[in-house]
Amino acid sequence: MSQGIDLKKLVQEEAELEQRAIDSQFINVATKWFVIKKTSGISEVHADDIWRSLEKNVFPVIGQTPMAELTAQVRRQWNGLHRLSD
Questions:
Q1: 74 close to 61: Cβ distance less than 8 angstroms
Q2: Phage integrase central domain spans which residues (predicted)?
Q3: 18, 33, 34: which is closest to 66 by C-alpha?
Q4: Given this model, what pLDDT does residue 86 score?
Q5: Contacts of 25 (CB under 8 A, 6+ apart)
Q6: Which pTM value belongs to this model?
Q7: 26 contact partners, CB below 8 Å, separation of at least 6
Q8: CB 61 within 8 A of CB 27
Q9: CB distance 26 to 71 below 8 Å
Q10: What is the pLDDT of residue 8?
């Protein structure tokens, strides 16, 4: 302990924060959702189609985006598109 700081605890807390940031990325949340979706009774063909669409169209754009930022990002993009259509 240096100056009242527990370095082991600090390193552990930083590692937990980093893991939560990774877990909250859209691609990781979508992957967990997809595992549940696949077992919900949809056909394998439909499941494959969903996953291909995500890989091709969604993950390249927002895959690494934290879920907390996603709503704000989508709102900004929507507002930009809306202005273009006026």
A1: no
A2: 26-73
A3: 18
A4: 47
A5: 63, 64, 65, 66, 67
A6: 0.64
A7: 58, 59, 62, 63, 64, 65, 66, 67, 70
A8: no
A9: no
A10: 86
SS3 call for 25: strand
pLDDT in tens, 32-85: 999 999 999 999 999 999 999 999 999 998 899 888 888 776 777 767 665 654
Where does residue 76 rank: exposed (0-12), middle (13-18), buried (19+ CB within 10 A)?
exposed
How far is C-alpha 16 from the chain's CA centre? 17
Q: Is 2 helix (H, G, I), strand (E, B) or coil?
A: strand
Q: Which two tokens stand for residue 9?
A: 């605890």
> How many angstroms separate the CA atoms of 63 and 78, rounded?
18
